[in-house]
Each structure stands twice: as structure tokens, then as C-alpha cells.
What does this fold into?
Amino acid sequence: MAYANGLFDVDSLNSSQIKDFFLKVREFKNNKIETKYNNKVVALLFLEPSTRTKLSFEMAVHRLGARSIYLDSTSESSLKKGESIADTFWTLHAMRPDVFVIRSGDDFPLKKLASESCIPIVNAGYSSISHPTQALLDAYTLFEKFGTQKLKILFLGDVAFSRVAKSNFKIFKTLGYEIGFCSPNYLEINDKELFEGKNFTQLNEALKWCDVCIGLRTQWERSKSIDVENLKKNYQLNKSNLSLLKNEAVIMHPGPTLWGQEFSEDVLSFKNLLIREQVTNGVYVRSALLDSIWSNK
Ligand code: CP
It folds into this structure.
């Protein structure tokens, strides 16, 4: 019943629930998705931009035989006429979709509405606070590649404002991984307790240490203070430092990647680059999550 009310963040899940979920994702990936939900409708409410999350949820909905309705902040909705975000949510709620998938900024009272809603809500990225389905798909991608091997995971780039880093930290801690980070805005992190791990000031040392390097996009829309020249000079993964990674090390990025900033284009030819696998796995993770909600398992 871990998903009966949807999914707000991954700290509601213990390691055995996460591992059971991964087995289900693997089954789904092995062509076991059934199109058995043709009576279900998912309401996608995206108040911040998205490509991967939005379309992979839609893909997951289609794979399950369900259907979706969609509203974003740029469309011609009554948000443009001044209707509040909360009223917009309750208007959609009154149409009784079977699940809400919501991406929003912190002006949306996600946690409060989730506690008041009788319809399950899945957080599809909440401001700089959380992104649980990204954390599940990133952790699943590592499970698929390395099984239950304990790994050293490095976060590289804008840690302070990244919702991906925050949910990923939680899931990786639950799974017993070691965590390190190398970040130009370490000092701006409010919740230092959440980010307990090795703080590398030298990228070269960090790259030699890790088994997994996860690049993060600078959240320009939230963090205006990062100095691009400093980022490129001291925190960029590129031709001059890629060879410091261990032979079996992998590179990941939740996307969108700003090539030329956190990664140079040299990374595109790195042999263990998992960015596309992450995107593929996102569809199976989201299919398995919707199925878990509807089957109460
Ligand atoms: N990783 C991620 O959330 O990408 P989108 O913003 O494109 O959905």
C-alpha cells in the first residue's frame, strides 16, 4: 500500500519497498506491461516546463492502456484569467481523474493539497524541493547496471537548487550508497543535514573517488548567483578530466543537459554514459508507479 495516496517523495519508502518496486519495473521492461487500464484517466498538471517527465508519464499512460488530460501554465487555461492555482487544482479534482501528476513551483501548496485530495497525487518535480520519480528511475538505472553493489555516487554542479539531487540523496542513503558532491554553491545549501557526505573542493579528486558521476543542470531560474566561468573552469566534466574516472565508472544526468556548461560535448562519446537509459527507464518506472497506485501494491 506504499503508493495508495500517490507519491510525494522517496523518504516515504524503505529499502525493501524500493527493491520490490525495482523488480516490478524490470518485469515491465521485459515486455510485461498489460494494457488493462482503459477505464483510467490521468490528469497531468504541469506548471513548470518539462520534456522528459511530462512525455514519459504520457507514454506510461498509453502503455497501460489508460488516457490522459493535460494542463500547463502556457496553455489557454483560466489561469490566464486570474484563477488561482488551488482553484485550478480543485476544478480538475471535481472532474474525478484517477491520478494527478503535478509539476509545480513552491507557490503551489502540493503537500497540503495532497493531504486534502481523495485522488492520489504523484509529484512530478516540486520547485527545488523534490523529484521522486527521477530519483526512482536513477536508482533503478543503477540497480539494472550494478545490482545491489554498494556504490560511491558523486553529484557534480548545482546541488543547492536541484530537486533531483535532494530526492536522489534520500533514495541513495536509504539504499546504503556513499555520497559525495563537488559543487560551486555548496555554501548555499540550506539543509546541510540532508546532504551529509564527502564535500570535494577539487574535481579531480572527486572523479577518482566515484563509481557514478551525476551531473546537474544549473537551475538558472532559481539560482542566479552561479558564476559560469567558474563553473566551466572548476566543475565541468570534459576531455581533460574524463580519463580520471575509474574504468567501470558511469556518467548520468537527469536532463536537460546544458552542453558546454556542466558537461562538455566530449562526454557524449564516453563509453558508460547512461543518459538515454535513464530516459528509457523513466517510462517503465512511471508505468510501474501508476500500476502500483491502481492495484494497491
Ligand atoms: N529530468 C527532468 O525532470 O527533465 P524534464 O524537466 O525535461 O522533465
User: Anything to note?
Assistant: The CA atoms of residues 26 and 284 lie 8 Å apart. Strands lie at 6-7, 41-46, 67-72, 99-104, 121-126, 152-157, 178-182, 198-199, 212-216, 250-252.
